[in-house]
Write a structure and sequence with these properties.
mainly beta; Jelly Rolls; eight-stranded antiparallel β-sheet; 16 strands; globular
Length: 297
Amino acid sequence: MMRSGLAVKCVLLALTTILSLLLPASAEPIEGYDEFAGPLSPALWVGLETNTNFAVISNTETRRAVVQPDPLVAKRFLQLGLTSAHLGSGSDTGVAGEGRQRLRVGRDDIIAGDVVVTGFHTKVVMLSAAVTPCPTTTDASPTRAMAHVVFVFFNDGSSTGPTDATGDVFAGFNVERSSTFGKIITAFIAQCANPSCSILANLGKAQTFTRRWAIGVPVPLVVAWDRFNDRFFYTSGTEQHVLTYGDIPLTAAAPPVRDVRDLSIRNVLPNCSTPVRAAAGARYDFMRIGTETGVFP
């Protein structure tokens, strides 16, 4: 019995050590935001469905709901789904556009900037993902269907005012199926390159995880902002990557302008002279967010 108790203590100590290494010492605690135990609260969330090119792309099926898959089990989940397609864009080069089904963080203190988001933790279960590749593409633009989690963290000082998002910096994950790369998990940093953020700067900062996802298997996703060392920590299970931005260089100079903190389904379609389709469904088990006051003057 004593040996068994000692073994348990050793296991707990090992787990504590691993968890302490997964997040930077400067990261704020990530606390509960929504466990999706009931209907979506308008005080916490704003729902959006968007399309960057309605002239070509159609969002043909969509879903956003809190569901209880098993009536005998009380646990509920957020479920998002989206199908996007076009019948042929008349070109075989480049990207035709993308459709998104979004659920955006809408808590007043976060939107107003009274607190700054310092990290998030969620768990994604892919329920479906299907992509139609373009057989005649000339530049290898893939068809992509994904669960997409992205949060804006700061502005680098490039903004000229409340309507100019230039310099806003985002961090997040894609859990995607690509017609080129298959089932991958990617961490990224992105930045608004113009006032409306219709153009994102290519910062050359992305990392594909070694692990792959599978239908029905939970994928934990954690981002922690280590602003004192100009970097983000990205963790999925026991695998972790660090993306730095001080070398670009970027500086966390001010609160972000845009209000983008999304759980979403994102379908990216290439231009193609033949029909192309992307569809994905995902379950989000919970949302936890780290916040801090007094980060910016």
